[in-house]
Amino acid sequence: MHNIKQIINKMPYDLDADRSFLFSALYEFCEEILLPKRKQQGLTQKDVSKKLDLNQSEISRIERGLVRPKDMATIQAVCNLYDLTLAEKQKYFSLTTGISQEKNLIDTMTSLLNEQTNFIAQLNRSGHPKTAIEHCKHLRNWVESLISFSEYNNKNLLGSILHLLLEESAAWWDIVPPKKLDLKTVPLLNKMSLLANSLKKVGDGDSYLYIHINKGFHEYVKGHYKNAQDYFNKVLENPLIKNHPWEIEIIRASAVIAGKLKDISALRTYEQIIEKQVSKSKNPAHKEYLLEGLGSGYSEIDNRKALALYNKAWEYMRQASLQQEFLMIRKIQLTRSYVYLLKNLLVKREALKRIAESALNEANKAGFVRHQKQILDIIKN
Q: pTM value?
């Protein structure tokens, strides 16, 4: 959760003159706007400290412009609690981050969102989905505190928000059972649909890339494989998916679906695609993930071939586990697939439990409820 703080601390305060000017302007802003706004609402500094969960002395320093809030969530909370107008929010953001309004607030927000969304994706897949969700909420609230929905007329910003909503949905896929998924993700899907329609109005013909990915995985997680396949086909037809971080996710899931639907022709097509991806990739985590997906597809048709693919995947998993940015969820997914195959090969339940024990513990610790339940169901049923 420290990443936003690091970004703000790196904002362009390069010269002493800039520091002096910004803090002088911040002091003036707080004296003329922030303090009167609190008094107009009949709030005391003690009231504000309770609402923001900060010491009263810290509120006093913030209100006098002597310090900047330490993170984006606090900046947003101050803007909301002091009931600042849109223009006042933009001014306060500028003074507290060091980004002048002349440098284009929308572009700055887009850049911050893109960097944070990549961080959130890593958070989720490395075993921190609940933290990823909280991070997403802070970022969404921050954006909404600065600009109203009617002002979402920049396709780059809208695209970044759609990507953020997709990553928030992806975290929910992992921590709730499929039966409860709609309660958490349908509101996000609805918001994405509204934003996608806004993108169409500003001339972006590829506005549905993220929403098709989201809807596809929504159907996939719930076991509606034909519906998921239809959405994923639309995604793979979109030129923007090429070399996109979600490309291997779609290819891997499509191979699994081909196996589930017993579509041998489609499975062989994805086998060729995955072989090319594996041969050109230098990332062992990507290679493992693609081979695991292909193996999962073949486990519905050819157990021997599936086993060979899983064995290759395990070799790449060992290499990936040595990397600093190891994605724990990949190990859990590979274990789940491997246990499923071994059960098909009539391996005894006690042996399956021993093989799955480490992955089950890691899934429980990370909160990957869906994957944990799937492994347990395979062993029990």
A: 0.72
